[in-house]
Please model this.
Amino acid sequence: MHSFMPRRHKISPVQFWILLVLSEGPNYGYRIMQRLKDMFKGYWQPKAGTIYPALEKLSKESLITCKVEHREGAPDRHYYTITKKGEEVLKETVIRWSKVMEHIEAYGEAHRAIQRFKGDLNREEVGNLLIKMGEGVKKGAFDLSEIIPSLESVVVEPTEPLRFKLLYAWENGKLEIELEFEWVSTERGEEIQDE
Model:
C-alpha cells in the first residue's frame, strides 16, 4: 500500500483515516470500523484484518495510545487515543494531502479546456485531413473548422520552434496513434519575455 505523506512519518491511507476518526475522541476497534464505514457511505467495508494491524503500527509509532478497559462478563475493550505526535502527523498529512488535491484540481482545470474530435473516417478522409493540416502548418496558420467542419472555428498559428510528438500503443488489440504539436504562442512568448 502506498505510504501517505508526510515523508518523515510513513502512514498508510488506512492509518490516516484511523487518525482522523481518533481526532474526534478516544474510540475502540469495532466503533472505529463502524465510523469508517459511515464515513465511506458503504463504499469501503473496513475489516478487522486491516484495522487492527494499522492500530498496532500507529501504536508502535507512538501516534496513538491504548488503554484497556476490563469488563466483567465481556471481553476487554481497547480504547485508542491520538497522541500529540499523532495530531502533528495528522495535521502535516492533511496539509500535504490538500496540496496534492490542489495540484490534481489545477491539472483537471487545465485539461477540461481540451477539445477533442473522435470519429470514424475512411483512409482517404484521414489522409486529406493530414494533408490539410500539414499545409496549414507550412503556411503558419489554419482554421480547425476548415479541416474538421464539426469543430468550432479556431485559428491555429504555430510558431517556431515547433515540438512534434508521435505516440503509438496497442490498446484493446488495436494500434492507436496520436499526433501532438506544441509551441509557445506569440502572446505567451511575449509574456514570458516581459517577466
User: Anything to note?
Assistant: The longest helix spans residues 84-112. The radius of gyration is 28 Å.
